[in-house]
Every structure is written in C-alpha cells, then in structure tokens.
Amino acid sequence: MSRLTLLALQVLVAVVAIALWHVLTTVEIGGRMLLPPFFFSNPFDVAARIYKMFATGLVWRHLWVTLVESALAFVIGSVGGIVVGFWFARKPLVAAVFDPYVKMANALPRVVLAPIFTLWLGLGIWSKVALGVTLVFFIVFFNVYQGIKEVSPTVLANARMLGMNERQLMRHVYWPSALSWMFSSLHTSVGFAVVGAVVGEYLGSAAGLGYMIQQAEGVFDVAGVFAGMFVLAAFVIVIDAVVTLVENRLLVWRPAAAETRG
Fold first, then answer.
1. Cα separation of 110 and 89, whole Å?
2. Strand, coil or helix: 29
3. Which end of the chain has fewer beta carbons closer than 10 Å to its terminal beta carbon, N or C?
4. What is the residue extent of each domain of the chain?
5. Lowest mean pLDDT among 93-97, 99-103, 114-118
C-alpha cells in the first residue's frame, strides 16, 4: 500500500467519525438526539473554539508550558530508562536484587503520586515533569532491558570469537539489538509524557493545556473541553512524528519489512 493511499484512508476514518458525531448531535431521531449537544457539543462549535484559541493567541502560552513539561519528562524518563535498562541487563545480580522493588514502584498508581509531587516540588513545572518521568521511565526501562536480553547467544559467541571487547560489543551488538525495542517504547512514551504533564496541570497549575481543559470543565464549557482535547491530540501526533523521523535516521540500516498479500 502506498503512503498516499494509507494517508487517504486515515483521513477518511477521521472524516467519517466527525460526520457521525455531527449527525448524532444535530439530527433528531425519534424526537430526541442520541448525543445531547450540552454534553457532547458538536464539530462546528469545537472547530470555532479551536480557531478562536489560535486566532487570539490564547493557546500558545499554554502549549509552550505543556511542551516544556512533556519534553523534560520525555528526555529525563527516556535517558533514565535506557541507562538503568542497560545496567540491569548487563548485571544480572543487580537486576535480581532490585527486581521486586522495580515491580513495586511500577505498580504504584501515578495519580496518587501527583499530589505528593505537588507537595514536594510545588505548583511549578517540576511537579508535572516528575509525574511524567514516572510514566515514561518504566516503559523505556522494560523495553530496553528486554531488548538487551533478546540478543542472540550465537551472535554474542561469534562476536567474542572475533575478539570484540565489552565496548565493541555494546556498540555493535547490544545497542543495535536494543534500538528497535527502545524506539517502540519511545513512541508510547511520547503520549505518556504528555499525559503526565496534562494530568499534573489538571490537578493544580496556572498554565498548560490541562489547565485550559480544567477551566473549561469547571464552567461546563463542553466545546472548550473538546477543543483542548483535540489540540492535545494534534500536539501528541506532531511530537510522535518527530520521534519517527529520528527513528528512521538512526535505524536506516534496518531492512524494510516484507509486505504480504492476501
């Protein structure tokens, strides 16, 4: 399937979903609407609100705050997950000792941590960054750890037979093996970094997309809530596209997947 065809199908799904939303919130069926506009708004009102947000410049400051928080959470959490993942994979004893503690920390509900981070770090950006880091770290950590563990013993034996030292093994064997796993986790982590920032803003802040959504919700402005959600979704897609560009650059050596025909 060509890229243009795939893009057309993706746009078609969005068009059908929006058209269905419009019909269900504006056309009466059996004397009533299936989706009351008071609770679900409608596409035209949401589009008008999004246009107003950008036309007045109101959204830019909030977007910037959320971007900074998400970027810091993504970078800190990803780097931490990669470093600790490599360390645990190369030190089985360390991994065995800390295994129950890692699982316990990963099982903690992040929403419970948000008020604690607010108490520790205040209402500024760092409490939101800390929440985002807790979401990103474990996703990257487990994927990198598994990627290193999945290195073929045969490849390792051949590399050692050729005289590779630990540094060369890391560069030519372990790192390439972990890259695919790592970027798979990074695509997921992008969304979680933004979720951490937005949830933190929703619970207590003076700026950010989460703050905008919380303010709209507080006055029952459903169009404003949906507008904030759509801006947030587009925001995540743009960041994910940047991660994809970096992935394609670093994994240029990876063979293209074979297409199957039904």
1. 26
2. strand
3. C
4. 1-40, 41-250
5. 114-118
